[in-house]
Amino acid sequence: LMEKAHARLKQQGYSAALLRPADEGLRRMYRKMGYRTATHVSEFSCTAGEPIPLREISTEEYARLRQNFLPENGVLQEGVSLTYLAAYSRLYAGADFVLAGLTDNGAFVGIELLGNRNAAPGILGALGYETGHFRCPGRELPFGMFLPLAEDAAEPDYLGLVFD
To answer: How far apart are the C-alpha atoms of 117 and 135, rounded to whole Å?
Structure first.
């Protein structure tokens, strides 16, 4: 199945495949297929602080602002990917960050926080949550796996948004 998927990607002009395994067992399986860990993230939890100014934004504005905060060599995701993201999360912007987040069991989950990660407590305060968990660019946790399908395939440094 994966060989057919890779052949189809090549046929459509893609130079690489990028995915995010849900667990270590899948990570080992994909490694056997030639994938390697290419991107990492940081995750942290915090409690609410003094509210800071933020506003809910459209998918289009998130795509535009995300480019300003995206780490160098980060995977640019827009169009249908961000439309899908907006279907199950809310998109926000502040003076020095963009955020995609949702509620899970009464707590806030920032599935992508780009920019000032120190804004997290103030974000929680502004949104009325006591606690939250955030994912942002970093080097602590393995995240995306990469398989080149062409010799010129560029390995990304950051993949923050994944879709099940």
So the answer is: 9
pLDDT per position as a tens digit, 33-86: 999 999 999 999 999 999 999 999 999 999 999 999 999 889 888 888 888 888
Q: What is the pTM of this model?
A: 0.90
Indicate the DSSP class of residue 74. B
Between CA 124 and CA 6 the distance in angstroms is 41
Rounded-to-integer distance, Cα 150 and Cα 133, Å: 37
Q: Which residue shows structure tokens 């010129």?
A: 152
The counts of H helices and E strands in the chain are 5, 10
Q: Which of 22, 21, 24, 18 is nearest to 6 (CA)?
A: 18
